[in-house]
Amino acid sequence: MDLLLQFLGWVLKKNYFLFEGKFYEQSQGTSMGSNVAPAYANLFMAHFEDTFVYNNLEFWPYTLMWLRYIDDLFFIWQGSESTLLMFAEYLNSRIPTIKFTLEYDKKQIHFLDVTVGLTEGKLTTDIYRKPTDRVTYLDPNSFHPPSTIRGLPYSQLLRVKRIVSEEANFDERSEEMLAHFSSRGYETDLLEDTKEKVKAIPRSTLLSKKTCKKSERLPFVTTYSRQSGFVKGVINRHWHLLQMDRKLEPWVAEPPMMAYKRASNLKDQLVHALSEPQRKQDLMGQYQLKIIPLYMDVNFCKI
Question: So where are the chain's domains?
């Protein structure tokens, strides 16, 4: 445990970056992109709430609902506008490096990708897109498994049905999304079948908490390529040979689940975090050596 805490201290406190050939250490906060950063931010904000929000007898009684996603807050305020502004000022005065921006309205508010409105005393939700949002759905002709291409419209329409609370609005939002997919080149038949499939699913089912079912199928992990479909066919065609072995029977009852890793793409070839050092000649002048800082690629611990 002490060793893990020491590793965690390195990850949180020894953040560095390279700029114009020089290394700089980050003196405050944690680095963006770090595996531990989201958990660290969540823990910090939870501590902040316990200390300054939940036990605050002056402002907490005005709060009807309080929800947080990492550092984004949504709450319903029953007090006056002046007390709301005083509450925001109070939060911003607790820790010098933690500042909140306040957006409020009596009819509707945007929170992440949701618009929450108040209609006849009832909360309604709808899809929200930022003004800078662009249609950048995956191109159907890109080099990805066919299941990924087919599943993308389905997953996005499920998201629409979860968020949009009014049935009439769902029809409108689903048509908008299908139009975006169509503009990217997705087949009309696929989109129409997906819409009917999603429409048949009750929204209450999508909003209920699901229990994760553990699959007993073995995962076959490989890099996706043009031969992946051929390999899958060969495995399924001859899988019965493994099932004939009684010692393997508990593990080979079903064919494996194909899991694909992303193949190397053009970005991997062109973009590098570190520029390659210049080649240096050894003393004998016979070989060219590459001096590479290997320690930069070491991951001591991932949490």
Answer: 37-104, 105-207, 219-267
Supply the angle between the helices 146-163 and 188-199 in degrees, to the nearest 10.
40
In Å, how far are 144, 255, 298 from 220, measured between CA atoms? 17, 9, 27
**N residues, the chain:** 303
Tokens (6 digits) for 231: 């390999």
CA distance 106 to 76: 10
124 touches 165 (CB < 8 A) = yes
pTM > 0.85:
no
pLDDT for residue 194 is more than 70: yes
- Contact residues for 53 (Cβ-Cβ < 8 A; gap 6+): 59, 60, 66, 91
User: Parallel, antiparallel, or unpaired: how do β-strands 257-261 and 219-223 relate?
Assistant: parallel
Tokens, residue 244 = 């004939």
Helices and strands of the chain, counted as H and E runs: 9, 11
Residue reference for tokens 């709430």? 49
Cα angle at 200 between 199 and 205, to 5 degrees? 100
- Does residue 202 contact residue 162 with C-beta atoms inside 8 Å? no
Q: State the Cα–Cα distance between residues 243 and 281, nearest whole angstrom.
A: 58
Residue in the structure block whose two tokens are 């051929």: 230
At 119-136, the pLDDT tens digits run 888 999 999 988 888 888
Collapse the DSSP code of 111 into the 3-class scheme (helix H, G, I; strand E, B; otherwise coil) and give the result: strand
Q: Kindly state the tokens that stand for 260.
A: 């694909």
**Backbone phi and psi for residue 16, each to the nearest 5 degrees, phi listed first:** -140, 165
List of residues 6+ apart from 28 with CB closer than 8 A: 97
- Tell me the β-bridge partners of 109: 116
In 3D, which of 100, 102, 96 has the Cα closest to residue 29?
Answer: 96
Q: At CB < 8 A and 24+ separation, what contacts does 9-18 make?
A: 10/300, 11/35, 11/36, 11/301, 11/303, 12/36, 12/40, 18/273, 18/274
